[in-house]
């Protein structure tokens, strides 16, 4: 019989002897086979059952939801990461990513903060309808928006807009509670003071810790307000920071924040590699994105033929993933921002619009794959899911 190639590997005889002895003396190694998988699943569970233990009002338009494991323990996470919460609203099973605002050193629960969004299907459902004790299915913690001491500076400049402050609250809580050797400057843009979640906690932390500088920037401040007013500008950043070199910049908030702050940072000669931005959902107004074909209205109706599942209605201004969910076809999804690739579908025929900056792999483009969470039909489509 021909010799198997692995018989030449170093240690082959030793392993064979070990197996012979194990069989002879009753050690059952097959029981150990799933150990690494069980260990990895404990650290990075693909799905989790979470129970809503409490709800705290942060502002008139935002609440913090405290989630505890329905069974077992919560896996570890890094400050800045998010979970993808599955929610059924009006018979539609969908999901949304929410950054964890509690710090990683606190292992008993995760806090997420939900803000009301005009016509926001999930946020408004969570704020108005869910009750304590409700069980949610969730992903494990995910995302790359965290501080990595190997690559990122100890001096962190955090720039937030609205609910985009939540990952930064987790980072700041961890730094202050664990005494980490990092220095934070947080610029927090909010329309009003009353609408700025965590404002009082951030004021208090910046008063107690020399390494935390908090700069709220209020668009519509009260008449006697003495802090920074308007929007976050390069001039304000320079005034508060001095020299921007030797610092890593983290941005989290709506698209308008990126559109205005990234050019301002570049104007201060902050290199691209020092600017990190969190994904923040699909664009609110896709037809305002550069490259949108102006002859197509967002309400234009199309159909999507899903191979093997039949035809479903779609709308130009609605991401393909949403049309699928409305038809009862739920895709795997985490970020809903075009970053994680979980929602890839193959476009067999028809054109879709994908906003600039969506990181699609070259091979995906070559074989017609798109991210359904940030792809919009521009004509009738045929897709494979
Ligand atoms: S859900 Fe992450 S790319 Fe679509």
Task: Supply the key terms.
385 residues, alpha/beta, Elongation Factor Tu (Ef-tu), domain 3, Rossmann fold, Ubiquitin-like (UB roll), 3 domains, six-stranded antiparallel beta sheet, 9 helices, 19 strands, 23% helix, 28% strand, binds FE2/S2 (inorganic) cluster
Descriptive overview:
This protein is an alpha/beta fold. The chain has nine helices and 19 strands. A six-stranded antiparallel β-sheet has the order 4-3-6-1-2-5. Helix 5 links the parallel strand 8 and strand 9. Bound molecules: FE2/S2 (inorganic) cluster. FE2/S2 (inorganic) cluster binds next to loops.
In the CATH hierarchy, what is the architecture of the largest domain at level 2?
A: 3-Layer(aba) Sandwich
Tell me the strand order in the biggest sheet: 4-3-6-1-2-5
- Please count the beta strands (DSSP E, at least 2 residues each): 19
**Roughly what fraction of the amino acids lie in strands?**
25-35%
Termini Cα gap: 46 Å
Mean pLDDT: 92
Q: How many H/I helices?
A: 9
Bound molecules: FE2/S2 (inorganic) cluster
Proportion of residues in helical segments: 10-25%
The biggest sheet, with number of strands, parallel, antiparallel or mixed sense and barrel status, is:
6 strands, antiparallel
SSE order = HHEEEEEHEEHEHEEHEHEEEHEEHEEE
CATH level 1 class label of the largest domain: Alpha Beta
User: CATH homologous superfamily name of the largest domain?
Assistant: Nucleotide-binding domain of ferredoxin-NADP reductase (FNR) module
- Secondary-structure-based class equals alpha/beta
CATH fold group of the largest domain: Rossmann fold
Number of domains: 3
Principal-axes shape call: globular
Q: Which ranges are low-confidence, i.e. pLDDT below 50, for 5 or more consecutive residues?
A: none
Gyration radius, rounded: 24 Å
């Amino acid at each position: 019989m021909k010799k198997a190639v692995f018989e030449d590997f170093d240690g082959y005889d030793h392993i064979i002897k070990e197996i012979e002895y194990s069989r002879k003396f009753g050690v059952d190694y097959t029981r150990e086979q799933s150990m690494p998988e069980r260990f990895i699943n404990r650290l990075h569970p693909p799905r989790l059952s979470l129970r809503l233990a409490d709800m705290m009002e942060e502002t008139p338009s935002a609440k913090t939801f405290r989630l505890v494991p329905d069974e077992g323990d919560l896996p570890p996470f890094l400050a800045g990461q998010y979970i993808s919460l599955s929610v059924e609203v009006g018979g539609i099973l969908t999901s949304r990513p929410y950054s964890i605002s509690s710090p990683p050193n606190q292992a008993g629960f995760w806090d997420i903060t939900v803000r009301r969004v005009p016509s926001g299907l999930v946020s408004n459902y969570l704020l108005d309808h869910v009750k304590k004790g409700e069980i949610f299915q969730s992903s494990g913690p995910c995302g790359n928006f965290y501080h990595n001491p190997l690559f990122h500076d100890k001096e962190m400049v955090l720039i937030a807009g609205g609910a985009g402050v939540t990952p930064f609250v987790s980072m700041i809580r961890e730094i202050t509670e664990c005494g980490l050797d990092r220095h934070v400057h947080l610029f927090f843009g909010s329309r009003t003071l009353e609408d700025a979640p965590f404002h009082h906690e951030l004021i208090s932390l910046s008063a107690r810790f020399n390494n935390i500088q908090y700069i709220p920037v209020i668009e519509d401040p009260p008449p006697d307000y003495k802090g920074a007013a308007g929007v976050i500008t390069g001039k304000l950043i320079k005034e508060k920071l001095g020299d921007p070199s030797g610092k890593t910049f983290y941005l989290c908030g709506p698209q308008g924040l990126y559109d205005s702050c990234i050019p301002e940072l570049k104007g201060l000669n902050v290199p691209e590699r020092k600017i990190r931005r969190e994904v923040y959902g699909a664009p609110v107004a896709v037809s305002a994105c550069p490259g949108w074909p102006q002859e197509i209205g967002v309400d234009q109706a199309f159909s999507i033929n899903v191979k093997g599942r039949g035809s479903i209605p779609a709308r130009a201004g609605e991401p393909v993933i949403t049309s699928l969910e409305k038809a009862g076809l739920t895709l795997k999804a985490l970020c809903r921002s075009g970053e994680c690739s979980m929602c890839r579908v193959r476009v067999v025929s028809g054109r879709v619009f994908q906003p600039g900056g969506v990181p699609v792999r070259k091979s995906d483009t070559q074989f017609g794959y798109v991210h359904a969470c940030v792809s919009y039909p521009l004509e009738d489509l045929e897709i494979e899911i």
